[in-house]
Amino acid sequence: MSRIPFHTRVATAAALVTAVVLPLTSSTTASAAVPAGVQQAQSPVQAADTPSTSAIKNGGYVQINWIPPFNVGKYDWVGLYKQDPGVIGLNNYVDWQWAYGNGTSYVTGVPAVSGDYWTAYISYDYSSGQYRIVSSSHDHIN
User: Fold this and answer.
1) How confident is the model at residue 127 (pLDDT cuts 50, 70, 90)?
2) Strand 115-125 to strand 77-81: parallel, antiparallel, or no bridges (unpaired)?
3) Higher pLDDT, 36 or 46
């Protein structure tokens, strides 16, 4: 049997501890707030792997598409807006969907009328106790 050098074992153990412990560091005791009553923070969170969102026409309705971050939060959601959510506020959406456990697209009940739409990926920030826009997109649907 070959011996594994001590520094290799330490580095491997540190990587394993990081992979196992870090996802458990966020609190799981926060209650799920309905997006209509969210508190908006003033500045967006900067994630290491920033998600993206978009709006397209699917049949006669607007569809929200999103690419989630590596670690989707239990209370992350996506919203559809008729104006920039960073300006009008997170609770002024026209439709929304939880991101956690719901795939990466959602056909809304909003008729796909030609015009401008904004989508946003919103995440709950446990340290501030508020929802924050992680990313947003401005799309035009014909």
Assistant:
1) very high
2) antiparallel
3) 36
Is residue 62 predicted with pLDDT exceeding 50? yes
Asked if 40 contacts 86 with a C-beta cutoff of 8 angstroms, the reply is no
CA distance 64 to 29: 29
- Residue whose pair of structure tokens reads 């792997």 in the numeric block: 49
- Contacts (Cβ under 8 Å, ≥6 apart) of 115: 82, 140, 141
Q: What is the reported pLDDT for 37?
A: 52
Specify the length of the chain in residues: 142
The single-letter DSSP state of residue 33 is P
Q: Which residues pair with 138 in a beta bridge?
A: 118
pLDDT in tens, 100-119: 888 899 999 999 999 999 99
What value, to the nearest 5°, has the Cα angle with vertex 89 and ends 86 and 69? 60
Specify the CATH number for 48-142; select among 3.30.565.10, 2.70.70.10, 2.60.40.10, 3.30.70.260.
2.60.40.10
